[in-house]
Amino acid sequence: MLSSRVRQSLRAELRRSMLAKFGIVLLVGVILVATFAPFLATQPPKEQNLEDSNIPPVGFTDSSEEIQFVDGERQTVTETVSGSLDHPLGTNQLGQDIYSRVLYGARTSLAVGVLGTLIAMLSGVTVGLVAGFYGGRVDDGLMRFADIMLAFPALVLAIALIGLLGPRTLEIPDPFVAAGLADGMPEVLTIPLTVTLVVALVNWVWFARIARGEALTVREKNYVKASRSLGASNRRLMLKHVLPNSLTPIIVLATIQVAVIILLESSLSFLGFSGTNLSWGFDINQGRDLLATSWWISTMPGLAIVLAVVSINLVGDWLRDALDPDIGGERGGM
């Protein structure tokens, strides 16, 4: 449970910062859209209809020229296609509805972002606490391994690990479809398991470094020394004193890392390593050769990534400003 002081600080910073309010509203919207995608989607996201391919978004028109032979004569025919409410964000070259795919792509990105962050946080915090609390050779060994991990570019390391582990996916039944509330929609949520594990392996180092730094400071506090003198075990000291007093920067880092992992997952999906075709990165890749004609295929999932990442970063900034006493919040606000 959060202490009254922490809750008061969060409320005070929220009142001062319009950006924090905007970020929270935007993030809640993204989460709701991902959660209720089966109800909000206008078409099954994987359904193909070549007759409706490359339809522009509502409010836009797309003109294309086609050469036809009429009575043996070569003629250039201009065909104009207007956006339709049936496909508010347009369709791709396979006739799939971009709006529905963006909604379901949010599910994949948020699932990987949250799960990957949780795995990275659990492993990284454990390593960091042990290294910082015990110090000496334990600290040197664990942190040198962390330094080796940091020496590799994140994307290159992720691709290498995916090649080593192989593509694996985790299929979770969609409760709304299983209950018969959203007929025609995908029956399972496909989570790219390998990608989730890989992004966690790439990002655990940051949690380890933060947790180590906090453990080095907290272990020297008088209340820790007092507990040790009373016979408290090292395990109890870490779990009851060091960890609770190290959570503030860890929580802030976890929030920001969700956005980082979403970007990394989108990059891997763009390169074809995701394991599912319901992903923002996958859709951006599908439209990259059609930017001059069907720009919306890549632009719409790209905008979705921007909104999700910006909202998470704004919430992370709010938590940092409210919980870090050295910053003191956004004075003056907006």
List keywords for this structure.
elongated; 334 residues; disordered C terminus; mainly alpha; two-stranded antiparallel ribbon
Description:
There is one protein chain. With about 325 residues, the chain is mainly alpha-helical. About 60% of the residues lie in helices and about 10% in strands. The protein is built from 13 helices and four strands. A two-stranded antiparallel sheet has the order 1-2. A two-stranded antiparallel sheet has the order 3-4. Helix 2 packs across helix 4, helix 4 packs parallel to helix 13 and helix 8 runs antiparallel to helix 11. The longest helix has about 35 residues. It is elongated, with a radius of gyration of 25 Å.
Short description:
The chain has 334 residues and is mainly alpha-helical. It is built from 13 helices and four strands.
* Count of distinct strands: 4
Mean pLDDT over all positions: 87
Helix content: 55-70%
Compute the gyration radius: what is it?
Answer: 25 Å
Shape: elongated
Termini Cα gap: 30 Å
**Helical run tally:** 13
Order of helices and strands: HHHEEHHHEHEHHHHHH
Instruction: Please list the strands of the largest sheet in the order they lie side by side.
Output: 1-2
Strand content: 5-15%
Structural category: mainly alpha
Give a quick account of the main beta sheet: strands, pairing sense, barrel closure.
Answer: 2 strands, antiparallel
Parts with pLDDT < 50 across at least 5 consecutive residues: 327-334
